[in-house]
Amino acid sequence: MLTMMKKLTFKIGGIHPPQSKETPAGVIIRPELPREVTILLKQHAGAEAVPVVAKGDHVVRGQKIAEASGFISAPVHASISGTVKSVGPALTLEGRYAQAVVISASDDDYVADMKAIDAEEIRNTDNISPEDIIGQIANCGVVGLGGATFPAAVKLSSAGDKAKLLVIDGCECEPRLTCDDAVMRMHADEIVGGIKLMLKALRINRAVIGIEDNKPHAIKALSEACASEPGIEVVALKAKYPQGGEKMLVYAVTGREIPSGCLPISVGCVVNNVGTARAVYRAVALGEPLIERVVTIEGLGNFLLPIGISVGEVIKAYDKDGRYDFDAIDGEIDLINGGPMMGRSISNIYGPLTKGVSGIISVRHVHANVEPCIRCGSCQQACPMGLQPFLLESYGRHGLIAEAKQAGALDCIECGSCSYSCPSARPILDYIRLCKFKIRAK
Fold first, then answer.
1. What is the pLDDT, as a whole number, of residue 5?
2. CA-to-CA distance for 325 and 335, rounded, in angstroms?
3. What span, in angstroms and rounded, lies between the C-alpha atoms of 19 and 13?
4. How many domains does the chain fold into?
5. Does residue 234 sit in the same domain as residue 383?
6. In this structure, how many other beta carbons lie within 10 angstroms of the beta carbon of residue 413?
7. What is the pTM of this model?
8. What is the three-class DSSP state of 289?
9. How far apart are CA 404 and CA 34, in angstroms?
10. What is the helix (H) or strand (E) element at residue 360, kind and residue range?
11. Are 239 and 19 within 8 A, CB to CB?
């Protein structure tokens, strides 16, 4: 069911950067499986997973290779069949070393995996209990695919009897990314299937899917997919950044304000991304762990990639026009993990894909002249959290951490609206991040 009304959005702040959604969202490309993957053990919020395999072990696609090591943690699974080549440090996309399992596939392993992909069987989930749904989601290592990578089973099990509404984020307000749009267009039925399973796990009967109005094909696909589901509603939202933030989205679809320092469950809401909903469906209905995800590689397409694949190798295989000039990296061009607003710089393009990578984009260096703050208030007007970013930046520069905490630094969602809107090109968000880091360190 699609709700048509005035364009809904959040109450304060927000910006309208160019969307630049040039990567086609009408198709998802599945490349050939790689012959080697590097699977990081910490690619989720919480504690790092503990390996349960050793060098020389043979594993099969979907097998658990690392176990969750705490309440907030998630297991990790093999995305290809093969032999464990090593268990130890590996270089990430960010250029840091982290513990990983490297798996190398033989020709026979590759053939077996391709046959397994073509032989998927859907299980009957009509009589599955809420506890079994959450247990299967946990066992399959499903985490939030909207960016935070919080373990999905923990979010569902922690809601208790407070949950009244499931809110599904289909906004994809970050410019230049279209992976969620592609998933909504191509896999609407699986998203709705995942929503129904999460509703059952939460023991509630109502869900709202919020989608920005610049994605008419996704709105149409999901409206048709849930037409016979009276408890699931599609709501078209005004295209405004950062509409997909939890607090912004909950206000847009319910009018409820989440208090400072609180989570959506404080107002009866549980929020999940559309990609997470699909992963939940595949975990419960197909028994498939989270071993692959859809990723936007800007200008090349949306790709269904196995976790652990070398991002650089995928780009080299599909970049026929030289859009991604690796020789220019660290020169005129930066590669970004994520979108232009909240993404992080990549220093090792051959690093492995993780569950939290939604897109890869390229940006040219802009050498802006940083000017003194002119107290124009642009950053404050843009802040969707109602903060005073110029003040937090000043606290950060002068090391006034207690004052920054008192001024609400921890409420910052790091959307970058302040830096984007600053006419003096000041690195406002960088100093706020510094404040948050030092507050948490204490």
1. 44
2. 10
3. 18
4. 2
5. no
6. 16
7. 0.95
8. coil
9. 47
10. strand 359-364
11. yes
